Structure formats: C-alpha cells, structure tokens
C-alpha cells in the first residue's frame, strides 16, 4: 500500500515542471505546485471526518485514488491531444481536482496502516517506519520509470500516475476492514476540524514554533517544482548537452529520496543529543546548502555539487518534518495531539508550501522565464537559487535568535 501510495505521486511530482516548461507553461509552474498546498489546508480534515463517521477508511482511500486517477488521466489525455497548444485553464483544472483527492490519501493510508497494526498488536512506533520506507522506495521507482522511459518531458507521466492510482484503487478493496466510529457522541464542527488545537498559539513557545514551521515550509516544494526544469535546461548549453545529469534529471534527483530514507534513522540520536532547536537549525542550514549548491553546480565538472545538494536534502526535509512532528507530539496534551499534528501539517504543507511556491514562481518567472536567451536563463536560474538560499539562511538566523528552548539530553525521545 505504501509503495503504491507514493509511487502515484512520484510519477509526476519532480518532473511535472519540466513538462509544463516544454509546452510553454513554465511561468505557471508555481501555481501548479501551490495548489497542492491549497488543498492540503482543508481536504485532509474533510476526508478525515468522512472516514471517522461514514465510509471505512480503506474504502475511502480507494475511492479517493480512483477519482484522483480519473482526473490525472484527463490531464494526460488533454496534454496528449493538445500537444504544445495545451491551455492553462483546462490542464490546471484537471490537475487541481486530482490533487484535491490525492493529498488527503497520505493521511488516509497512514490511518489504514495504524489501524491494521494496532489490531494485530504491533507497536506502531517500531513497526510503521520500516513500512513507510516502502513509500519512498515506490516514489523513487516511479521517478526512475518516468525518467528512463523518456516520460519526464511529456504528458505520459500523468498516465503512469493514473495507472498506479487504479492499481491502488483495486488493491484497497483487498485491505483489512477499518470500521467507522460507532460513537453517538455529538461533536461540534470545530471539534471535528481540530480547531481547538489552535489554542496552542496562546503558548508563546508553540506560537513561535508554528510560525517558523510555516516560514520553513516555504522551502518544501521549491525543488520539486524547479529542480528538474533547471537541470534539464543544461541540455541547451554548449558543453553540457551530452552529460548524463542533464538528460536524466529525475534519476539524479532520486538521490534526494535515498538520502531522505537514510536520514530518518539519524533523527532519534540527533534529537536526544542536540534537542529540537539545534536539529531544526541543522535543517535550515541544510536548506541553505540545498539551494546554494544548485546555484553553483552544473551537470558537468560541477555535478558533485548537485549530488551534494541531493545528499543534504535528507537532513533538510527529515530534520524539519519528522523532528517537528515529534516536538509537537511531546509538547501537546494527549487530548489534542492529533489535531496539533494537523495544525503543524497545515502550517507547513498548507500555508507554508503554498506561499513558497507562489513566491518562488514570481522569482523564477522574473529571472528565468522572462528571458529568451538560454545563457541569460541559466544566469537567472542561478540568481533564483541564491535568493532561495539566502531566504533559508535568514530564517535560520531569526530562528536561532527568537526561538527559546532548553534541551534536556536525559529526556527520553519518542521515536
């Protein structure tokens, strides 16, 4: 389930920007990726209520994937028939409806896994992480499939995602039943949506943490949207056109996911030894390096800088997302813990990622897609990466000064 869950996403997440650029929609890349953040603000909560009350979660998982597959297929079919004349409104509409139903499935698949593991008396803290790694493996496999079939430059990546989504739709009906809640207790809409967790903003420490989570969430989707078109653009630069990296950007980027898988294993040790503040600072410095190395690297003699950028991605992503989630779990009352996690996700993958992609779109459009000369565009890419890198460094400096947290290394970290 986890393998297919993330393979559906991996089929287009890192290569869609390249396809959009190839059909003249490069200036709209930011909007496509921002939509994932927009739907992440409200759709997971709505689907969570439905799964809690009316439709067993494994069936809702399958139904959601079926709808997402239909519309991502529609996006691919429209891209195929329209070719380079594909228009933004229709393609964006099909894509938006698809991600509106895909994004909630990340939480739904976790709920299925937790439900099944608990019913069979497994410790979810120990049993789930190894299972979750199959999700990253699925993501990598889909990326490589799309790369080596030559689909990363065209609409076919959407068809791959749709086919995988149909497989998961069918497979979901073979999963063990996860019954809906039989409780007759009436809950208000604010309870159902987890809005009580917003009371955490009254706590100065938590309020500062959530604000910085949003500020760092700005960085989350930038390389997903722009790394592939940036690396692929070197094919038009004399001396780089024949390099392996310029022709297999997805394969190069997949090293980021390998790093992500490995870095998850480091988190318990780093959190216990250094505490949340230093671990989050490591993440912010890693984002600074992630973007900066893109700015100075190239797929030729400087390919080692690209590879280094992929390696530090694991620290940038995991030390922020996983460590932040553990911090929220540790610092909040049990009664609102799940809702608090929802707030953390909303601030990072919702508001943060949306703001980040809209802003990144403005930057890249100004420095890259407003230019017609390929050398000028390359310089624009470098300037854009330096701006993103400088932003991450600024957030790190502000976090180091403003966020106050005394670490006790004798505490037991939940992992």
Task: Give the gist of this structure.
The protein is mainly α and 415 residues long.
Walkthrough of the structure:
By secondary structure, this protein is mainly alpha-helical. It folds into two domains: 1-177, Growth Hormone, Chain: A; 200-415, Growth Hormone, Chain: A. It has helices at 2-10, 16-22, 29-53, 57-82, 88-119, 124-148, 156-172, 189-192, 204-217, 222-232, 244-247, 249-264, 267-296, 303-331, 337-369, 374-402. The chain is globular. The model has no long low-confidence stretch (mean pLDDT 86).
List the domain count as a whole number: 2
Mean pLDDT: 86
**Gross geometry:** globular
Low-pLDDT windows of residues: none
Helix content: over 70%
Reported by name, the CATH topology of the largest domain is: Growth Hormone, Chain: A
Distance between the termini: 22 Å
Key phrases:
415 residues, mainly alpha, Growth Hormone, Chain: A, 2 domains, 16 helices
